[in-house]
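Hi R.,

Here's the chain you asked about this morning:
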Amino acid sequence: ENSEDIKYLYSNGRLKVKEKHAPIFDDNMSGYDYEHFVAKCFINSGYRNVTVTQKSGDYGADIVMTDSNGVRICVQCKKSVSPVGVQAVQEVIGAMYHYHCSKGTVVTTSTFTPNAKELASEAGIELFENFRTTKEDDLEWIDKIEEFESIIED
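And the predicted structure, written out as tokens:
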């Protein structure tokens, strides 16, 4: 397919969810369904070995995956209407060690508290705010508000 013909439902420079075959967000989905939605978005964006962890006892990672450079990444998903706090960032930092990942990401339907953003910046954790795709009949760009450079050396 021609690159000019590709439409994206979510784009923040690094993660682009293509309209074609994109999962559609539903406000009524459960937290576990949201984890599967996020996993499908990463698969759609070209990540490999995308695995949703077990429902409980996941050591702070809901998804473990590999990027195009072979780097293992763990993802914590938070379907929330309130700002997500520092605990989610702490959980994904712990999960990085358990799952032997070089990078960590926290994804939410909401925003992050200042403390969560500060710890993420210090630890090289990437934060995706307002992460959802729109209904097919109401497409619009959804951009991540904050982006942090990874300071973790492989």
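The CA atoms of residues 35 and 77 lie 6 Å apart.

Let me know if you need anything else.
M.
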